[in-house]
Amino acid sequence: MTPDLEHAHRLARGEAAAVAVFAYCRAGLHAAVGSLLTTASVYDLSEMRSRRVWTDDAAAYPTGNFKRLDRNLYFETVIERCEPYASTSIEGIQKVFFDWQKIQALGFESNMNLPAVADGQVIGTLNLLHRKGHFTADKVEAALAWQPVATLAFLLLDRMRSEGANFHGVSGGGGAPAMEG
Question: What domains can you pick out in the chain, each with its CATH number?
Fold first, then answer.
């Protein structure tokens, strides 16, 4: 499945545009490359952290929580070079994520992080998890077709101008976000 950019643009002109465009992007990525658990994050590079703005699994990965960023291969690939990071084994995940044991315990050993890029900077990522061996080079290539739709969704989210804004359509929860890592 490839994106219909005219459809994405129509969604962007409607009500709850960020939520609608993100839902279209997420559904398209699931159809094109598959994902068993998807989250989305925005970045606060001055504080070296990300904030989750979408989750398929609120118990494991709550929306609104912060996750520390480490200067490593993920940071170099996704944040500095604005390229996807993908691995097909837990070893690739272990190299870059402090919570790799949690990811493995949930049954995942393959990941892909697709950056949304505007003005030469990453403004968000879609983070996909799957079973071992899943996110091969051809799947990464197929996911890249959805990058413009992902970027549109994150730009629309940013226009909401709310620290608690997320793709679930509700502002942050009642308590203070937790810091993971």
Answer: 5-161 (3.30.450.40)
> What are the CB-based long-range contacts (under 8 Å, 24+) for 58-66?
60/102, 60/106, 61/37, 62/173, 62/178, 63/166, 63/168, 63/172, 63/173, 64/164, 64/166, 64/172, 64/173, 64/177, 65/177, 65/178, 65/179, 65/180, 66/177, 66/178, 66/179, 66/180
Per-residue pLDDT of the chain (181 residues; tens, 9 = 90+): 899 999 999 999 999 999 999 999 999 999 999 999 999 999 999 999 999 999 999 999 999 888 999 999 999 999 999 999 999 999 999 999 999 999 999 999 999 999 999 999 999 999 999 999 999 999 999 999 999 999 999 999 988 766 667 766 655 544 556 666 6
